[in-house]
Write a structure and sequence with these properties.
Elements: H1 3-6, E1 15-19, E2 25-29, E3 34-38, E4 43-46, H2 52-61, H3 66-78, E5 86-94, E6 97-108, H4 117-127, E7 131-140, E8 143-156, E9 159-172, E10 175-183, H5 191-199, E11 201-202
Antiparallel strand pairs: 1-2, 2-3, 3-11, 4-5, 5-6, 6-10, 7-8, 8-9, 9-10
Helix pairs in contact: 2-3
Length: about 200
């Protein structure tokens, strides 16, 4: 398995969430130097101030709106698969469940992604989450990055639906981050994905 998929390291990174002029919410993952603005109608879990498990417990027990419950339900369902290098998760609530979503994972010590496209593709194919994987170079936050597009099947209300994954491997001051958008339509035509992608800023 490639370095980008194999690295599993506990990370503690402070995050600040603030309103953005665009009407979204800006999440600053300060320790890795990444800032992203999430649409205001999405709900966001800051997973940098405590361990993932502690955050799931907090989300599950506090008073919640229906949107928060959708996020909490999702986090509890996947909690066994998460690790503390997951820095942020946000989703668009749809009828009480998490629909389109984004997560940011830290890859501490990883080399710059550009030049490692084959390794990234091999690791993701071995992981098996997405299929029909296409890897290309991209620019994110003004720096060279790697874009990955793929598809996954999911059972929803008794029917199988195709989900689209759009991932970006972006170099940071601590190594790299993996930013994954999972949506009902392709990320290239999803307005929320494109808005978040344009909002990404890197800082020291």
């Amino acid at each position: 398995m490639g370095m980008f998929v194999a690295i599993v390291s506990s990370v503690s990174a402070g995050a600040d969430v603030a309103s953005a002029a665009s009407g979204g919410r800006t999440v600053d993952l300060d320790k890795v130097g990444v800032r992203i603005t999430v649409p205001r109608h999405w709900v966001t879990a800051d997973l940098t101030r405590a361990s993932v498990k502690k955050e799931i417990i907090r989300e599950a027990t506090r008073p919640q709106s229906s949107a928060d419950k959708a996020l909490s339900t999702y986090l509890k369902s996947v909690g066994g698969f998460l690790s503390d290098n997951l820095l942020m998760f946000a989703c668009k609530p749809q009828r009480g469940i998490c629909g389109d979503n984004v997560n940011v994972v830290s890859l501490p010590g990883a080399p710059p992604p550009v030049g490692h496209e084959d390794e990234i593709k091999a690791g993701l194919e071995a992981d098996g989450t997405f299929h029909n994987i296409v890897v290309t170079d991209a620019v994110v936050g003004g720096v060279p990055a790697v874009e990955v597009r793929g598809e996954a099947q999911k059972l929803r209300n008794g029917s199988t639906v195709v989900l689209h994954g759009t991932e970006y491997f972006v170099p940071t001051k601590t190594g790299a981050v993996e930013i994954t958008f999972t949506t009902d339509d392709e990320g290239s035509v999803n307005s929320d994905v494109q808005s978040m992608l344009r909002s990404i800023r890197l800082h020291s």
